[in-house]
What does this fold into?
Amino acid sequence: MNQSTTPRVLYGDSLTVGYGERPVLANVDFTLEPGKLTVLLGPNGCGKSTLLKTLARTMTPDGGRVLLDGNDIHRQSTRAVARMLGILPQSPTAPDGLTVRELVALGRFPYQSMLRQWSRRDQEAVEAAMAEVAVTQFADRPVDSLSGGQRQRCWIAMVLAQETGLLLLDEPTTFLDLKVQVDLLELLATMTHKGGRTLLVVLHDLNLAAAYADTLVMMKAGEIRHRGTPSATFTSSNLKEVFDLDARIVADPNSGRPVCIPIRPGYVAAPEPTEASVVTG
It folds into this structure.
C-alpha cells in the first residue's frame, strides 16, 4: 500500500480554540474515522472551519491537542505533517498566469529540500493527480482561465500530489452551480471509497451532505451536537435544534438517503416516515 492509501487516525483531544478573547471551541473531542467521508455541518459561526483548521495544524489550540497517528501534530515539522495530511482552504486563489501543472506541482513541496530536487517520482505524482481529477487536458493552461469547477479540481489535484491518505477540505463547493457541486462530491466520494483515503469536508448544503457523507457531524455554538450516519443524524428534531429549521425528512426513492423538505410557515407538517423507511445508501 503506498502512502496515499495508508489509513491515518486524526484525533482532537479536548480542543479549546479562540480568536483573541472570543472562544470558538471549548473542550471539543473529535475523531476522524479512517476510510470514510465525514461531513461537518452547522450554521455560520458555529466553529466548523475553526475545528478543521485546528485539526490541520493551521491554527494552534489554546487547550488540548491534535494527535495524528498518536503523535502530537504541533510537535512535528510542517513538512512531516504535509506528507501525511493535506488541507484545501476555503476559496483559494492562484497567482496570475500560473498553469495547472505548475499549481499541482506545488503539492510536492513536502518532498523538496536542498538535497532532494525535482525528480521523476515528483513528475509521476503530479501527472497521476491531474489524471485522477480529470484536468490533464488543461495542464498547460492558466488556472485563472478555467471555470470555477475546473479550478477547484485543480486545487484538489494539488492536494492529491502530496500523496497523503488524509484530506481536509473547507467548503470546496462554495459558489459553484449545483451540477458542478454534485460532480465534485462524486469525485470526493470516489477518492474515499475507491482511493482508500479519509476525507473531512465542511459543507453548507444539507441535502448534498446527507447524500454523500458516510458520517455527518452537526455543530452548534462551538460544540458537536450530533454525530452518526445520515439516517441516524439527519432528523427533523436535529435540524430544528442545530439550524432552527422546520423540515420534514423523507427517503430518496433511489438511494434511500434522507432528504429534508423545509416546511413553510402556516403549513402543517406531514407525519415523519418511520426509521425503517430511511436507509443509509
User: Anything to note?
Assistant: Residues 3-228 form a domain with the Rossmann fold fold (CATH 3.40.50.300). Residues 195 and 238 are 32 Å apart (CA to CA).
